[in-house]
Amino acid sequence: MNILAWIVLGLIAGAIAKAIYPGHQGGGILGTLILGIIGAFIGGSLGVLLSTGTFTLAAPTLSIPGVIVAVIGALIAVFVWNLLTRRSTI
Predict the structure, then answer these.
(1) Residue 51: partners with Cβ closer than 8 Å, 6 or more residues away
(2) What is the CA radius of gyration of the chain?
(3) Where, by residue number, does the polypeptide cross the bilayer (predicted)?
(4) What ranges do the domains of the chain cover?
(5) With the CA atoms of 52, 1, 73 and 13 taken in that order, what torsion angle do they form, in degrees rounded to the nearest 10?
């Protein structure tokens, strides 16, 4: 059941992050889901790191604070993804 909650949380966080982040991001629903799940892990791990001082791979729970942390992590994931896939113009 945890995996299903992470998928739902990732989809919600990815959709909110793509709506907040300026510019056009491709990828469709699958890209949104993957970036949201990665963002949930980034946000959860950063939350644990800031609160306890130890780094562990963690995902937030399906709650309002968990969604907020996941959206922050998804924004970071979208930013990094845009840096990696940006095409330079000559």
Answers:
(1) none
(2) 13
(3) 29-50, 62-84
(4) 3-86
(5) -140
pLDDT, tens only, 26-68: 667 777 778 888 888 888 778 778 888 777 766 666 678 778 8
Q: What is the number of other CB atoms lying within 10 angstroms of the CB of residue 28?
A: 8
DSSP string, the chain: -HHHHHHHHHHHHHHHHHHHSSS----HHHHHHHHHHHHHHHHHHHHHHHHHS--------SSHHHHHHHHHHHHHHHHHHHHHHPPPP-
In this structure, what is the dihedral angle of CA atoms 52, 57, 62, 64, given to the nearest 10 degrees? 40
Taken as a whole, the chain contains a residue count of 90
| Residue in the block written with tokens 């491709």 | 26
Token pair, residue 35, equals 């970036």
pTM: 0.74
